[in-house]
Amino acid sequence: MAKRELPFQSRQEFHEEGHRVFLPHLSVDCVIFGFHNDALKVLLLKWKQGPWCLPGGFIKHRESIDQSANRILKERTGLDSIFLEQFYAFGDPAREKGKRVKGAWIGKRFITIGYYALVEYSQVFPQPDLLSSECRWWDVDEVPELIYDHKEIMNKALYTLRLSLNDHPVGYNLLPEKFTMPQLQKLYETILGEPLDRRNFQKQMLSLNLLIRLKERKTGGAHKAPFLYKFDKKRYSSALQTGLRISF
Amino acid sequence: MAKRELPFQSRQEFHEEGHRVFLPHLSVDCVIFGFHNDALKVLLLKWKQGPWCLPGGFIKHRESIDQSANRILKERTGLDSIFLEQFYAFGDPAREKGKRVKGAWIGKRFITIGYYALVEYSQVFPQPDLLSSECRWWDVDEVPELIYDHKEIMNKALYTLRLSLNDHPVGYNLLPEKFTMPQLQKLYETILGEPLDRRNFQKQMLSLNLLIRLKERKTGGAHKAPFLYKFDKKRYSSALQTGLRISF
Questions:
Q1: Do B248 and A92 count as a contact with CB atoms less than 8 A apart?
Q2: What top-level class would CATH report for the domain B11-167?
Q3: pTM
Q4: Among 3.90.45.10, 3.50.50.60, 3.40.630.30, 3.90.79.10, what is the CATH number of A11-164?
């Protein structure tokens, strides 16, 4: 279990002297979405005697922002090897209004850079760090009150995730290796939060040329056995890199 | 013509004491694309006795990042009322490697937040500021060497602009009020940098329900007069806000 190593003797020293280790005025927040059993969740931390928040932290003087995001996520939740995508910087000078922690360094205005990811949440094991009393998944529709503008950050990440379905494939590592078209559709519906037309979905999906239809069919159901598919790994990776073919 | 008002007595004082006015370690860079006569251009500044660069600047202590981006663009190029969209923060600690300006404040590492816009470039009149000797449009395929990672920032903006065609309508304020389908297709082709299939484009475009076909036709050409279209302003605005219908 990864515990956050504070490079300071006390919390007060960290609040006063953080600028020796971290860049001033800059933070990173991570929005980790989890998919499992047709539900979309988001990973939140609860500060000891405090509110719920996104897992976040600060940028070391010699780190790239991407490195910071990965380190912060690991230190604060134990999650490792997650592909994080930067999506937006939040810079309203009033975003922490009236709620800033005291301290020469940490009491200043912070612009935060948001990262997000989508993971299969039964395969990751979040753990709270020393600053937090809890670290757990919440249904995206049932998120409690969050600190600062963290709800807005989460909503922007969700909007970005939904839009990304237009441009990038999704499903690998979220679905079993072999899956049916209804399983794939359910994944898209869960992310989008709305039902989709079955025929249109199948047509669009097949037109992307990312799927290989297998000879075997799913067995055991009451209805006619549906086809099984798997992703064409090469085409899938290539579409992740370059984006899906522009629709026009 | 908007000239940049430096709140300092000298350039040296600005380089040393900028932190009194601006946040440390943070900058903003603007990638302004221009469309005109079927060409895609980008607006660049040339530092006096220095390299070409994107119009950029710093964030005042009480400004939002959006406000900074708009102020910077106006101060550095004279452009006003441009709808700027934030797209990415660039934070490699080596991004200005070996090329930082000297000064206690400005000589530090800067993370820059990128904004972009697409405008009809015959309708804007860029003007260099006091720090620059030139401010002009360059064809995106003929951009000269740029300072730091500005070429990478420009390319990421271009990639974002291209992907945005999947999610958002484009054309209003770039085309005449009444236009033909080939004119609209040429706009898309110019942004994407590649030819598109005529039939498929028309089919996709019409399926978005953003166009109103007019009774009058374009006259004067050698061929059969093509239909004229205009945007349905209400649907266009709504699609700008919420994004185009997800393709699935």
A1: no
A2: alpha beta
A3: 0.91
A4: 3.90.79.10
For A:151-190, CB contacts with B below 8 A are 162-163, 165-167, 188
Give the DSSP letter of residue A101. Answer: P
- pLDDT per position as a tens digit, B24-62: 999 999 999 999 889 999 999 998 888 999 999 999 999
The mean per-residue pLDDT over the stretch A163-180 comes to 91
Q: Which tokens belong to A173?
A: 């590592």
Please answer yes or no on whether B166 and A165 come within 8 Å at the CB atom. Answer: no
Q: Percent of chain B having pLDDT more than 90?
A: 65
Burial of B67 (0-12, 13-18, 19+ CB in 10 A): middle
Range of weakest confidence among A16-20, A108-112, A188-192, B243-247:
B243-247
pLDDT per residue as tens digits for the range A20-77: 999 999 999 999 999 988 999 999 999 888 899 999 999 999 999 999 999 999 999 9
Nearest Cα to Cα of residue A154 among A42, A3, A18: A42
Is B201's pLDDT higher than 90? yes
How far apart are the CA of B170 and the nearest CA of chain A, in angstroms? 13
- How close A117 comes to chain B (CA, Å)? 16
| Every domain of chain A and the residues it spans | 11-164, 181-242
Which residue on chain B is closest to A66 by alpha carbon?
B91
CATH 1.10.10.10 fits A181-242, yes or no: yes
A113–B201 CB contact, under 8 Å:
no
Contact B20, B107 (CB under 8 A): no
Are B93 and A167 a contacting pair at CB < 8 A?
Answer: no
Output the CA–CA distances (angstroms, integers) from residue A37 to A186, B80, B112, in the order listed: 10, 50, 40
Which residue of chain A has the CA closest to B247? A166
Higher-confidence position of B25 and B218 = B25
pLDDT of residue A233: 95
Residue B129 is classified by DSSP as -
- Scored b (16 or more CB within 10 A) or e, A50-66 reads eebbbbbbbbeeebbbb
- Gap from A89 CA to chain B (nearest CA, Å): 7
B196 in contact with chain A, both atoms CB, cutoff 8 A: yes
Measured in angstroms, the CA of B133 and the nearest CA of chain A are apart by 31
